[in-house]
Amino acid sequence: MAIQRAEILVNGFVQGVGFRYFVARNAEQLLLKGFTQNLFSGEVYTVVEGELAMIEELYKKIKIGPTHADIKNASIKWSEPKNEFTKFEIRF
Question: Model pTM?
Fold first, then answer.
């Protein structure tokens, strides 16, 4: 199984709607490791490592988002994994 790393950036109405908790819950279900955090720009930034198919599944879910979110744009950037995470967490 090939481990990948991805950085996902989402903008739109994504803060104050439980977006990070939505990302964390889905990432944990998909056995992914990394973190998600709000940025001062109003975007949500997620770094995730795990199986390629699982990251792609998370990305699909992120592009839809939780009920009250309104995603305008989502981007994903792939890179080599650094194996720096032991779990998935929400950063503040």
Answer: 0.97
